[in-house]
């Protein structure tokens, strides 16, 4: 059997397994979808109420779209981040981690399978939320550069795959609380990356940290595409930079993961818990 | 071709355990750490096609040994080779040759046996169609009814779950099969089914089996050779008959492996387990 075919089957194992997990935990999927949906709606309604809150005339349509774009992009990026960072947490919870780690599957193959699922799942989930939210607000995307938006989203996905791999070492290092620690990583990215407000509103020291977050550039670029119709040629340097940085983070993430996996095998931390 | 399926040379493995109590050192509170040695310089070689037993009480180091060979742990000292492949330098080659059935039948609980086995088959690079046929044949041979193949694992009895675990171990036709107390907690009927299947696999496949157990009769019935492990050390290694010959008969009764264990270690299984628990 050729190595490539074997690795492809290995990668597909993770896609099929995750699809089966969604089918078996469908109740949880509905609960989480409702949570994400109401979250997106609540944030977007802040835009609707801005005039009433401030007592000033403002472009409500622009603010609503600004917030909605942030909410939807964050939905997508966080789904990718969590799907990858939880690849160890799920195995720990189910108790299958030892069987997966003793299977003849390389860690990059493990990652490819998890990433393919994460991107597919993220796209479907975000599309469902967008379709429902669109019924609540009047969205005018007639001047948007949708092709450029897809480019930015894909470029940003690469970085979040890398960040997910780095965060996935936490459940490997800390069997009991590692999964919860990944929430802190996601929360910090949410705070600093300008998801719901311009980065310039943050204190200077946080703005400097925000400059290191790939999400800052993804969200900025996407808002440019969707709100101002920024041409693809203007986005291309940022998209290429995001892909480059994303690939570098994936490389670093894999190296860190390999090191931590070895540490876990030295100290006996792979043993199931849960 | 390697005649030795498994070579374990001078393997030592210890774990660091944090104490619950706190100690004051120089006015600062620190959690004390303690080294717990699981294996103390293990040497053994398992020949191709052999059923090799490792017999010992709970806490003697059996599961640590299996986890080391499974590439789930790395030794502090020594070398482990599976058909000539070093577990540290060439783990992927080792993983292709082995599979493991452990005492805890770990599965995706809401998946059916077929879904769990399909996940395992794909991880080992098996084509879906052939794997599906094979898994049905093995499950049926192990006594599972067709109707249960699509039931969630969480609705199955411990015995049925363990049979699915055995099926998962055999599905990939491993050259070295690691059985870590595969029949612990099973009812007598299920136990016999699993033991018969191990014998059948050994006779029909070119498989080597490393079996850990604390069931003396099981070791006696299934194994070509047995190593007795106590407190991380091999205290004796021979055929079941050879081990029993170490102990003189009493009242015209042939000695059992339990007699051998007591004679070699100075204590029984239960005593060794109680001592280990007291330390823990």
Descriptive key words:
heterodimer, A: about 270 residues, mainly alpha, 12 helices, about 0% strand, globular, B: about 280 residues, alpha/beta, Rossmann fold, 6-stranded mixed sheet, 4-stranded antiparallel sheet, 10 strands
Task: Show the helix and strand layout.
The complex is a heterodimer of chains A (274) and B (280).
Chain A: H1 3-24, H2 26-48, H3 50-54, H4 60-85, H5 87-94, H6 97-101, H7 107-133, H8 146-173, H9 178-192, H10 204-210, H11 214-228, H12 232-267
Chain B: E1 4-25, E2 28-47, E3 51-55, H1 62-69, E4 77-82, E5 85-86, H2 91-97, E6 98-101, H3 113-123, H4 128-141, H5 158-171, E7 176-180, H6 188-204, E8 208-213, H7 216-222, E9 225-230, E10 233-238, H8 240-244, H9 257-265, H10 269-279
Parallel strand pairs in B: 3-8, 3-9, 6-7, 7-8
Antiparallel strand pairs in B: 1-2, 1-4, 4-5, 9-10
Helix pairs in contact in B: 3-4, 3-5, 4-5, 5-6
Could you give the order of strands across the largest sheet of chain B? 6-7-8-3-9-10
CATH topology descriptor of chain B: Rossmann fold
Largest interface: A-B, 34 and 35 residues
Query: Gap between N and C termini of chain B, in Å?
Result: 44 Å
Rg over CA atoms of chain B: 20 Å
Structural class estimated from helices and strands of chain B: alpha/beta
The parts of chain A where pLDDT drops under 50 for at least 5 residues are: none
What this model shows, in words?
The complex is a heterodimer of chains A (274) and B (280). Helix content of chain A is 79%, strand content 0%. Chain A has 274 residues and is mostly helical. In chain A, helix 4 packs across helix 8 and helix 11 runs antiparallel to helix 12. Chain B has 280 residues and is of the alpha/beta class. Chain B has one domain: 3-Layer(aba) Sandwich (Rossmann fold). Helices cover 37% and strands 29% of the residues of chain B. In chain B, helix 3 crosses helix 4. Chain B starts with a strand and ends with a helix. The model of chain B has no long low-confidence stretch (mean pLDDT 88).
């Amino acid at each position: 059997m050729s190595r490539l075919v074997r690795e492809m089957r290995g990668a597909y194992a993770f896609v099929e397994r995750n699809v089966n997990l969604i089918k078996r935990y469908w109740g949880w999927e509905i609960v989480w979808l409702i949570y994400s949906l109401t979250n997106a709606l609540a944030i977007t309604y802040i835009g609707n109420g801005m005039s009433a809150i401030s007592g000033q005339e403002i472009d409500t349509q622009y603010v609503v779209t600004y917030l909605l774009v942030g909410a939807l992009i964050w939905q997508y990026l966080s789904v990718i981040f969590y799907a990858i960072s939880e690849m160890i947490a799920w195995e720990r919870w189910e108790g299958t981690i030892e069987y997966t780690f003793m299977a003849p599957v390389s860690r990059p193959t493990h990652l490819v399978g998890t990433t393919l699922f994460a991107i597919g799942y993220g796209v479907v989930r975000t599309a469902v939320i967008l379709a429902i939210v669109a019924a609540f607000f009047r969205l005018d995307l007639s001047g948007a550069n949708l092709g450029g938006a897809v480019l930015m989203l894909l470029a940003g996905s690469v970085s979040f795959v890398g960040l997910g791999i780095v965060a996935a070492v936490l459940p490997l290092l800390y069997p009991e609380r590692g999964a919860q620690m990944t929430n802190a990583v996601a929360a910090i990215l949410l705070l600093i990356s300008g998801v719901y407000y311009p980065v310039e509103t943050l204190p200077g020291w946080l703005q400097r940290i925000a400059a290191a977050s790939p999400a800052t550039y993804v969200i900025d670029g996407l808002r440019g595409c969707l709100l101002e119709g920024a041409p693809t040629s203007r986005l291309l340097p940022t998209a290429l930079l995001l892909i480059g940085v994303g690939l570098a983070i994936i490389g670093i993430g894999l190296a860190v993961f390999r090191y931590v996996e070895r540490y876990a095998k030295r100290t006996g931390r792979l043993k199931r818990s849960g | 071709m390697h005649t030795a399926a498994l070579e374990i040379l001078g393997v030592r493995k210890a774990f660091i355990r944090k104490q619950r109590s706190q100690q004051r050192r120089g006015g600062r509170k620190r959690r004390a750490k303690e080294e717990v040695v699981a294996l103390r310089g293990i040497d053994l070689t398992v020949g191709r096609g052999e059923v090799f037993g490792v017999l010992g009480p709970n806490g003697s180091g059996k599961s640590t040994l299996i986890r080391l060979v499974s590439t789930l742990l790395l030794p502090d000292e020594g070398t482990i080779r599976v058909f000539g492949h070093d577990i540290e330098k060439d783990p992927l080659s080792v993983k292709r040759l082995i599979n493991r059935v452990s005492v805890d039948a770990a599965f995706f609980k809401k998946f059916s046996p077929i879904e769990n086995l399909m996940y395992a088959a794909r991880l080992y690079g098996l084509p879906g169609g052939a794997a599906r046929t094979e898994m049905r044949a093995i499950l049926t041979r192990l006594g599972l009814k067709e109707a249960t193949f699509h039931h969630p694992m969480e609705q199955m009895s411990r015995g049925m779950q363990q049979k699915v675990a055995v099926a998962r171990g055999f599905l990939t036709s491993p050259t070295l099969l690691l059985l870590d107390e595969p029949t612990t907690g099973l009812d007598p009927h299920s136990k016999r089914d699993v033991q018969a299947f191990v014998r059948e696999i050994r006779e029909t496949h070119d498989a080597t089996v490393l079996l850990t157990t604390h069931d003396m009769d099981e070791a006696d019935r299934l194994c070509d050779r047995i190593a007795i492990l106590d407190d991380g050390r091999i205290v004796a290694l021979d055929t079941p008959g050879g081990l029993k010959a170490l102990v003189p008969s009493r009242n015209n009764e042939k000695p059992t492996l339990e007699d051998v264990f007591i004679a070699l270690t100075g204590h029984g299984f239960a005593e060794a387990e109680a001592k280990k628990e007291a330390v823990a």
